[in-house]
# Entry
Amino acid sequence: MKIDFFDPEMCCSTGVCGTSPDPELIRVGEMVEKLKADGHTVARHMASRDAVAFTSNKDVYETMVKQGLKVLPIVTVDGKIRTMGRYPQMDELLAARES
# Structure
């Protein structure tokens, strides 16, 4: 399963830094590492650092053009959008594999 995270702009590639990191970003970081350890291909993208990833996925690009940056984060599984405006739970991603 190939999972792409199209993140909003953050201070670093995970957003987990500083003296009081966002607990949601810590959860997502742990989930990404677990998915990788389980053999899934996982990538995180930020527009300022990887704009091509945003424009390469037609659905992601068109959604951002229509709805703006507020729609981020967008998470895709095998190229299809699974969640917008929030990060998914692990079970949602694993269920996407079966659908």
About this structure: Residues 23-37 form the longest helix (15 residues).
